[in-house]
Amino acid sequence: MFEDLAGKTAVISGGARGQGASHARALSAAGVNVVVTDIRDELGTAVAEEIQGNGGKAIYRHLDVRSTEDWTTVIADAEKEFGKVDILLNNAGIVMCEPVDSLSDENWDAVINTNLAGVFRGMRAAVPAMRRAGGGVIVNISSVFGVKGTWGYAGYVASKAGVAGITKSAALTYAADNIRVVAIAPSSVDTPMLDEEKVIMAQNPYFDFDEWMASQPIPRIATAQEVSDLVLYLVSDRSRYCTGGIYPIDGGILAG
């Protein structure tokens, strides 16, 4: 279905579980060589081994997205193992629900350094490799809350809005290098991270998750596979005229 992806190489941050693991499996099924990265080494290794067991090509590497050194090593290992880097999927992220007046420096730094600076460091490491490969595609994971905002998520919303902004700037900067840069803005996705997020959401006195789901035009949670389907389109030649866009996958939330 995505024959043009066969033989390409993708680096995926946060690939040990949830959306990242789903993207790794989907890309591998399309013939992509996959570099699964995460800080959850046991889970990430299991995802890579599962892909290998199904006939795909995958390796696992430890990556703390806050670390420039880790990013340098991962990109170098990807080129050494598979010869090039064609796709970067900046998927790793964390969620915190705290308003500005109670948000500590420590928590602000944690969410910005992971969600936004991690994306910056990933792109900075990958762009030279993509130039060597003759081009590539970078997909950054933003959020509907990076577009519309929500109560209490000061650091998270700021980080995801920043992801949208850096995506647009990079798209303009690297188009001449045949590097496309896009972002995805999901709402709630059925993953282990959502279970953790629901605990955080319960702190919000103005927000009821079930009521919010019921109010959406498509009143349900997205599956990880549905997000992976969008990823496949955006990294394939079917979207070769697309760069700089922020693509919602949100059940219609941003339409209202």
Automatic annotation (TrEMBL):
<keyword id="KW-0134">Cell wall</keyword>
<dbReference type="InterPro" id="IPR036291">
    <property type="entry name" value="NAD(P)-bd_dom_sf"/>
</dbReference>
<protein>
    <recommendedName>
        <fullName>3-oxoacyl-[acyl-carrier-protein] reductase MabA</fullName>
    </recommendedName>
</protein>
<dbReference type="Pfam" id="PF13561">
    <property type="entry name" value="adh_short_C2"/>
</dbReference>
<dbReference type="GO" id="GO:0004316">
    <property type="term" value="F:3-oxoacyl-[acyl-carrier-protein] reductase (NADPH) activity"/>
</dbReference>
<dbReference type="InterPro" id="IPR020904">
    <property type="entry name" value="Sc_DH/Rdtase_CS"/>
</dbReference>
<dbReference type="InterPro" id="IPR050259">
    <property type="entry name" value="SDR"/>
</dbReference>
<dbReference type="GO" id="GO:0032787">
    <property type="term" value="P:monocarboxylic acid metabolic process"/>
</dbReference>
<keyword id="KW-0964">Secreted</keyword>
<comment type="similarity">
    <text>Belongs to the short-chain dehydrogenases/reductases (SDR) family.</text>
</comment>
<keyword id="KW-0560">Oxidoreductase</keyword>
<dbReference type="InterPro" id="IPR002347">
    <property type="entry name" value="SDR_fam"/>
</dbReference>
